[in-house]
Specification:
By secondary structure, the chain is an alpha/beta fold. The protein is built from eleven helices and eleven strands. The mean pLDDT is 91.
């Protein structure tokens, strides 16, 4: 198949590009900074010659959008909104104008669309959409609005011959440097991976291999459209999530952090505490109902695999540096 990945140079895009290319598919990445023969330049905001890559493609998986790993200032929040809505709109325009439109358009969304809650899990049928919770920062509602507008833009695109799926993805865990797992593992290795603000908030996640398998599953399942949660069936409280990660790496202690300490740490990392403090208790209702079987349903087994791969990657990098230094 020919698969087009708008915004496919980030962590998730790199995972998909690598896996789908290895499976023998023709993968084209739309990016602002093309470097490889399979990269095509676009600006994520207006139609251009890049739309030719969409015409005749089998699948489009749009991953474009400003990274959420930043301070949630008004300027950055507007950039998150605009980059997601504009790129989704223009992908829809390219599909609508195509002589041979793709059969399916998978659109990245986020599990952040659901409410901050501890009492029950959010699936697609009964989950509570966020934005009106009490006792949380007002700007958290803006993150929900971003997700809602993201999905609405796809849903309203006039593409009658293309099936549309919104991927409400939890945090994708892979050993790649710079990803969320890499950051969490670094905290654990430094002894800082303890409970944050009590650690009762739920962490929803998905192993990178299951993320790829879920995308392939949704491409093949012509009967599935609309919003789909991409999350492992075992979300767990942050304190337990980090305890498992520390034990897997071999770190006995993780220092706890209060809310104000989390604020200070997020400021130093130029990130935001919503990523640490919002309880994202999300489960994959539609995937499981459709018959998808997770290879990594539980965090303990997933963490062991990810740590093993992270150790192997570090060992390989060390050997490479030694060879270069010795040459």
């Amino acid at each position: 198949m020919k698969i087009v990945l708008p915004g496919g140079t980030g962590q998730v895009g790199t995972i998909l590009d690598r896996a789908l290319s290895a499976a023998g598919h023709e993968v084209v990445v739309l990016t602002r900074r093309p470097r490889r023969p399979q990269d095509v330049a676009w600006d994520g905001a207006a139609l251009g010659p890049w739309a030719e890559a969409v015409d005749g493609a089998d699948v489009v998986v749009n991953l474009a959008g400003r990274s959420v790993s930043c301070r949630y200032t008004p300027e950055n929040l507007r950039a998150m909104m605009n980059s997601r809505v504009d790129s989704t709109r223009v992908v829809g325009e390219a599909i609508a104008a195509a002589r041979r439109p793709p059969k399916v358009w998978l659109q990245m969304s986020t599990a952040t669309v659901y409410a901050h809650r501890f009492d029950a899990a959010n699936d697609e049928a009964t989950g509570v959409i966020g934005g009106t919770e009490s006792g949380v920062p007002d700007y958290w509602a803006y993150s929900v609005e971003i997700a809602k507008n993201w999905e609405r833009t796809q849903a309203e695109a006039p593409t009658p011959d293309t099936r549309k799926v919104a991927l409400r993805a939890a945090m994708v865990m892979s050993p790649d440097r710079g990803g969320v797992f890499d950051v969490l593992l670094r905290l654990a290795r430094l002894g800082l991976g303890g409970p944050v603000a009590g650690g009762g908030q739920y962490v929803s996640w998905i192993h990178d291999e299951d993320f790829v398998r879920a995308v392939e599953f949704l491409i093949a399942r012509e009967d599935v459209a609309g919003a789909v949660n991409l999350a492992a069936p075992g979300p767990l409280p942050q304190r337990e999530f980090m305890r498992v990660l520390r034990r897997t790496w071999g770190v006995p202690v993780g220092l706890p952090a209060t809310r104000w300490m989390a604020e200070a740490g997020a400021f130093a990392l130029r990130s935001d505490t919503e990523l640490l403090l919002k309880s994202r208790r999300v489960v994959p209702g539609r995937l499981r109902d459709a018959g998808f079987a997770f290879a990594w349903p539980g965090w303990e087994g997933a963490a062991e695999d990810l740590v093993r791969r992270a150790r192997a990657a570090r060992a390989g990098s060390g050997r490479l540096r030694a060879r270069v230094g010795g040459g």
